[in-house]
Amino acid sequence: MTSSPTLITGVCPHDCPDTCAWQITVDPATGRAIRIQGRPDHPITRGRLCGKVDRYLERTYHPDRLTTPLKRVGPKGAGRFQPIGWEQAIREISERLGEIVARYGSEAVMPFSYAGTMGVLQGEGMAARFFNRLGATRLARTICAQAGFEGFQYVTGRVIGPAPGDFAHAQLILIWGNNTLTSNMHLWPFILQARKRGAPVIVIDPARTRTARAADEWIPIRPGTDGALALAMMHVIVAEDLVDRDYVRLYTTGFEALQARVQAFPPAWAEEMTGVPAERIVRLAREYAAARPAVIRVNYGLQRHAAGGMAMRNIATLPALVGHWRYRGGGVMLSASGAFHLDKSALKRTGLLGERQPRTLNMIRLGDALSLDPERRARAHYAPRPVDRKPAPEDAGPPVMALMVYNSNPAAVAPDQNAVRAGLAREDLLTVVLEHFQTDTADYADYVLPATTQLEHWDILKPYGHLYLALNRPAIAPVGESLSNSEIFRRLARGMGFDDDAFGQDDVSILREFIEAQTHPTMAGITWERLLAEGFVRLTLPEPFLPFAEGFPTDDGKCQLYSQRMADDGYDPLPAWTPPNWLSSQSQIPNSKSKIQNPNFLTLISPPAHNFLNTTFANLARFRRREGEPLVWIHPEDARARDISEGDAVILENENGRVQLTARVTEDVMPGVLLAPTIWWAKLSSDGRNVNWLVSQDETDMGGSPTFYDVQVTVQKTSTLSGPS
Questions:
Q1: Can you tell me the distance from the alpha carbon of 701 to that of 303, in angstroms, rounded to the nearest whole number?
Q2: Are strands 201-205 and 459-461 parallel, antiparallel or unpaired?
């Protein structure tokens, strides 16, 4: 008698706001997963998986999957390894770490990780315990959204927005710097519901993305000038008295000061900055104020420039002026993260640090962090506010002698790849990489440790696009000799002689303890037993959820139109205009025809490729075929000026390096702007590089985030070049 297939529930681990609930069908005879599908009962994701995760089984069982520990046998970067056993790997790594700590101190060990998995345990759970016990350098995980989060929080006190389903109740939807159909696909059905009721959908973006093509209107805007558009909209709202005076009186601080400030930013001024016609700015402000309500969906791209924090601060100010927070479906959505008041102290065992206060280095300055030059190492220290100061070189701490990489691929994703690769190539640097595949970073490792995928381990996921906490159950046994991140760090802890009880707990015990430790009212009724039985549970919040209808989680309970906390941190306390680097570097402001003083330079942005998720999936043939090849979009005007035609091989170059791409000549990008969908693995590109070779280690105005979309480059056909590349 044949057993029926087993159905195991879980949740997608990847860096996406949707955090889809899934179910895995397992053949009981072989223990092999044979089907993946979305759970149809999830209120947000509703049984649909994206085109990447829909093929997750291919990734799990891919023939290139790492299944045994590896030790380097060739030069760093060559990617030559030999298999070794776990016992040998743990012993040798532990011995090397012990020697480094004894000679240089524990701060000479540095973790590097981000969102390869968004799970609380396999992300920064057991890993945090290990590094806290060791006293290692701490990592400021700034590479994605910190600038926007800081700007948003200065206004509202917490990063919260309307629930996805409430978008269906909006009368106007502004999708501002967000390619929803690529990066947040499960929000789109709710947007379509509003559209069927008559709500216009307007996309504000430098490029006509998939979402812009599906919307009612695309408003092109120059990269990094979103803050100027928001200021001009405020100007119109105040000048024409479109303000919700009652809401402003009850729930905001500093309106009079803001009223005086925005007089300096009329639409005609904003047109010069943004390229958006002044008359369209006026109509947009009127339409926005008149809707009952309007909702803005912003995303992380529009804050990846030198003034990204202030840009988000300006946009986050808009809904309070016109009272949109009062209504279901009104406000602005950056992330739902702030709705989750999760206490992670027991999970991470912060007490293991004791009285130690290790330095914190900024992940976007990995190239500087890995340098043996103390001046550069001092620059890598995390000092995100104007009142913060980076240390003197003599106080920068020891050189990084051990780099532990998990849930990330810094040799592809980090800025200033020349500096990153130089650091990774150091023969005296111990590099340990936990991975599924032999990535660009793994090629530089001394040891590569095979990690499990989401089908093979326990975890809990907090989404950042909706309000449902989810449990992931392992559906299959680990493939080959792979181990979960949590188990790898357990074994490393034992290898280092750490006998704390924190390293004796199994995964289920840790996750159960984590849930039982939660005391915030939003977690009331969410138990381990419920998660086991149901798979996902909504936070205990009102329905509908109107986060700021009657106040804000700020010091005075009001929206900070004027922020004393910003002033204390060294910022302008009011909405302000700070240009992106590419614009401030020009001695002449671009006019409405997008001419700049030096026409040789164009501004490069590099949003996510539709078929990759950061660098995940970028090594699989199916997804590379879908994506085609590394492209750069260029407007016909800019192409003609450079004698570039569709399909030409072109070189993008600046002081940081040069990259070869293939030209796509299209009016889907503004004049003066280049767009390169990313992130391609460098070693799978024609010249062994990707666009992050062109990005500096410059930081944003808030949060110490990267300036991925604030890059000036020249572009020319390869046939016109001479000299070495």
A1: 10
A2: unpaired
The pLDDT score that the predictor gives to residue 90 is 98
CA distance 17 to 9: 19
Binning pLDDT at 50, 70 and 90, where does residue 600 land? Answer: confident
Q: Is the pTM of this model over 0.90?
A: yes
Q: Is the pLDDT of residue 1 over 70?
A: no
C-alpha 245/C-alpha 321 separation (Å) is 8
Which residues partner with 716 through β-bridges?
651
Q: Which residues contact 240 (CB under 8 A, 6 or more apart)?
A: 285, 286
Backbone dihedral region of 198: left (phi > 0), alpha (psi from -120 to 50 degrees) or beta? left
Q: Which residues of 434-444 are buried (b: 16+ CB within 10 A; e: fewer)?
A: bbbbbbbbbbb
In angstroms, the CA 566 to CA 572 distance is: 7
Q: Which domains does the chain have, with CATH numbers?
A: 6-60 (2.20.25.90), 70-143+349-538 (3.40.50.740), 147-334 (3.40.228.10), 583-720 (2.40.40.20)
If one counts every other C-beta atom within 10 angstroms of the C-beta of residue 587, the result is 8
Q: What average pLDDT does this structure show over 561-569? A: 98
Q: Which residue has the tokens 């300006």?
A: 314
Q: Report the distance separating Cα 442 and Cα 452, nearest Å.
A: 16
